[in-house]
């Protein structure tokens, strides 16, 4: 009697790391961050497993030039709390973009990843830079096209 008839055989993922690069000036905030989260979770790969970390790293350049539609640059707010009574700080998109432009994309991508240990591990594979200089010139970078 064969008891392992319906067993799924999973190949071990290869250890080569794919490096992707995205220029944020071309895309809107939501479309870019959802596609980056999709690539980080390795859903574009045929050997996708929801519990496995993929070997992909994403570099985002020119985050200071990210675009939003409508009046979101005035109306969208980002909140943080110091933990003390009355310590809620509210900041609009424009002010945060002038002060720390990377945080906008990091906040959006982190919200689209799983809220567990795997999500925290995947988020370490994203590198966001406010201009087009980055220390990964020696890697073989693949241009990530978002349609």
TrEMBL record:
One of the protein's GO biological processes: translation
Sorted UniProt keywords: Chloroplast, Plastid, Ribonucleoprotein, Ribosomal protein
GO cellular component: chloroplast; cytosolic large ribosomal subunit
Pfam families: Ribosomal_L13 (PF00572)
UniProt GO MF annotations: mRNA binding; structural constituent of ribosome
Subcellular location field: Plastid, Chloroplast
PROSITE patterns the record matches: RIBOSOMAL_L13
Summary of subunit composition and partner proteins: Part of the 50S ribosomal subunit.
PANTHER family per the UniProt record, alphabetical: LARGE RIBOSOMAL SUBUNIT PROTEIN UL13M (PTHR11545:SF2), RIBOSOMAL PROTEIN L13 (PTHR11545)
Database matches in NCBIfam families: rplM_bact
Family that this chain belongs to: Belongs to the universal ribosomal protein uL13 family.
Protein name per the record: Large ribosomal subunit protein uL13c
Organism field: Polysiphonia urceolata
Upper taxonomic lineage: Eukaryota, Rhodophyta, Florideophyceae, Rhodymeniophycidae, Ceramiales
